[in-house]
């Protein structure tokens, strides 16, 4: 379970950069959806991919300490918090007045998710006595990334950021359940696959980009019948997936070169 | 609906889910290679299986009275966990070739069967022995009741709002059911993982010494669920969109 226990090592990627990518890229992507004609939903999906890369970096930082429950558990938990925050935020933004609610909804949802994430992490730290120094910060980041990725993909399917459109095209159709698991996989898989003593964060994030883009390609397909640009989202997602997975495979091959050149250790009978 | 009723339902439901997880024999990675007792996966996966099945069965009883929704949720979750444990045991017995045995007790508290001499040296038991199975079923029942409780109160709160009101000829508001379902699933995952942090990943069931940590886990679930319940009240504001 806690294969990567030890944690706290230096990362090849500055956490501030992924944080900026996730928040700025994610929010800009989401808010471009209603303002850019025709191809707006594409930006929502790209924003969600930015958030997935941010989330994958946050999960790599916190899970390198060894949670004792496996990497996926914190991914599922953050996505649960993200979904709760996103829906409650978009539905509850009406308290700010009916004119502004659509615009405030997404950001309100992201803030709510971060607050719930902070409370759950504080429970883990103070009540359950977990000894991970960056637990609170990373859980807050993860919850925010989860909420942005859910809202971004929902906006890409629905073609808008208002709850009525998302309710009929994403929630009532059950796609919200699919997004829940899809985004969890996209966020938790990269570190779960790459963890270990030789983990290189750049390589992990290349895998994160590929899981994010393949999720985007699937989200494009979900938009069939709702969005007129579903095929643009799908094709761009698929091309970007191909580029990022090729980069990841090349990186892995390079890292494995020392084994390839020197060969495996000899078998017992050959000694 | 009174917002306090929803907060109360989410808190009680969350505690039932978090408490229920302490009963489920979660074996984690060691159990996956049959060197520890329990189902060979993490809490999140068991919560996904048990929780989703419980919510689907609870949702199937949507228009029924509260007790029937709770029973349906409990039956769904317990059945799913029961099947998981049973099929897991088949793999452990006929696939791996180990005896279902607990390393935490010398005698099975339910069947009274000797345990110690069947544990392979260097391991912490294998498979799912009777006591773990019974414990897991209790955990599934508790979790299912908790999920069903949250679903019932949130659905009934939402369906009273104009945006989710039933159209003529409709018996179930699909959008209200989906929101209530995904919200209850979210609460299920959060409490399952909080409980999992408390038990440190693996537990055999109510006979495991780690089960004594239950009060601390329940306290954690109360705080987490209370905050989620307060956030959930915002959903009831959604009447005007």
Can you give a write-up of this model?
- The complex is a heterodimer of chains A (271) and B (241).
- Chain A is 73% helix and 0% strand.
- Chain A is mainly α.
- In chain A, helix 7 packs antiparallel against helix 8 (201-222).
- Chain A contains 10 helices and no strands.
- Chain A is globular.
- With 241 residues, chain B is an all-alpha fold.
- Chain B has 7 helices and 2 strands.
- Chain B has helices spanning 3-23, 28-32, 43-60, 66-96, 130-159, 174-199, 214-233, and strands at 101-102, 125-126.
- Chain B starts with a helix and ends in an 8-residue tail after the last helix.
- The chains are: A mainly alpha (271), B mainly alpha (241).
- Chains A and B meet through helix 3, helix 4, helix 6 and helix 7 of A and helix 2, helix 3, helix 6 and helix 7 of B.
Summarize this structure as a short list of keywords or feature phrases.
heterodimer; A: 271 residues; mainly alpha; 10 helices; 73% helix; globular; disordered N terminus; B: 241 residues
Mean pLDDT of chain B: 90
Major beta-sheet overview of chain A: none
Q: In which order are the strands of the major sheet of chain B placed?
A: 1-2
Strand content of chain B: under 5%
Produce the secondary structure layout.
The complex is a heterodimer of chains A (271) and B (241).
Chain A: H1 15-32, H2 40-63, H3 71-92, H4 101-127, H5 135-158, H6 163-171, H7 175-194, H8 201-222, H9 230-255, H10 257-262
Chain B: H1 3-23, H2 28-32, H3 43-60, H4 66-96, E1 101-102, E2 125-126, H5 130-159, H6 174-199, H7 214-233
Antiparallel strand pairs in B: 1-2
Quick rundown:
Chain A is mainly α. In chain A, 73% of the residues lie in helices and 0% in strands. Chain B is mostly helical.
């Amino acid at each position: 379970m806690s294969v990567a226990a030890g944690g706290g090592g230096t990362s090849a990627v500055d956490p501030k950069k992924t944080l900026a990518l996730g928040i700025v890229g994610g929010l800009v992507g989401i808010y471009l959806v209603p303002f850019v004609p025709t191809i707006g939903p594409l930006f929502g999906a790209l924003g969600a991919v930015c958030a997935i890369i941010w989330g994958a970096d946050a999960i790599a930082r916190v899970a390198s300490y060894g949670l004792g429950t496996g990497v996926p558990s914190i991914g599922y938990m953050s996505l649960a918090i993200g979904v709760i925050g996103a829906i409650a935020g978009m539905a509850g933004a009406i308290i700010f007045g009916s004119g502004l609610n659509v615009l405030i909804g997404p950001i309100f949802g992201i803030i709510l998710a971060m607050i719930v994430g902070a409370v759950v992490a504080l429970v883990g730290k103070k009540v359950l006595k977990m000894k991970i120094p960056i637990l609170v910060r990373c859980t807050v980041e993860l919850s925010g990334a989860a909420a942005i990725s859910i809202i971004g993909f929902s906006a890409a399917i629905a073609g808008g950021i208002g709850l009525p459109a998302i309710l009929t095209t994403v929630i009532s159709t059950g796609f919200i359940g699919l997004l829940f698991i899809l985004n969890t996989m996209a966020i938790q898989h990269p570190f779960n696959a790459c963890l270990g003593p030789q983990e290189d964060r750049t390589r992990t994030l290349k895998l994160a980009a590929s899981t994010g883009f393949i999720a985007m390609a699937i989200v494009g397909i979900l938009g069939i019948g709702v969005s007129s640009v579903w095929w643009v989202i799908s094709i761009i997602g698929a091309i970007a997936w191909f580029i990022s997975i090729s980069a990841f495979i090349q990186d892995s091959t390079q890292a494995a070169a020392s084994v390839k050149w020197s060969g495996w250790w000899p078998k017992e009978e050959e000694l | 609906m009174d917002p306090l009723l929803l907060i109360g339902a989410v808190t009680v439901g969350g505690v039932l889910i978090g408490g229920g997880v302490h009963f489920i024999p979660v074996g984690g990675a060691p159990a996956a290679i049959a060197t520890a007792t329990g189902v060979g996966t993490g809490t999140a996966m068991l919560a996904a299986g048990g929780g989703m099945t419980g919510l689907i069965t609870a949702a199937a009883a949507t228009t029924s009275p509260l007790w029937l929704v709770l029973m349906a949720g409990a039956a769904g979750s317990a059945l799913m966990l029961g099947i998981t444990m049973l099929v897991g045991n088949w793999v452990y017995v006929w696939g791996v070739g180990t005896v279902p045995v607990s390393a935490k007790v010398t005698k099975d508290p339910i069947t009274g069967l000797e345990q110690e001499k069947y544990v392979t040296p260097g391991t912490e038991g294998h498979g799912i022995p009777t006591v773990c199975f019974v414990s897991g079923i209790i955990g599934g029942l508790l979790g299912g009741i908790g999920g069903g409780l949250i679903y019932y109160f949130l659905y009934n709160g939402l369906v009273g709002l104009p945006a989710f009101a039933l159209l003529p000829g409709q018996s179930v508001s699909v959008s209200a059911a989906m929101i209530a379902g995904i919200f209850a699933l979210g609460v299920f995952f959060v409490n399952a993982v909080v409980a999992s942090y408390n038990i440190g990943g693996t537990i055999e069931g109510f006979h495991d010494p780690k089960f004594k940590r239950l009060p601390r886990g329940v306290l954690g679930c109360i705080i987490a669920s209370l905050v989620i319940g307060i956030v959930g009240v915002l959903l009831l504001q959604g009447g005007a969109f």
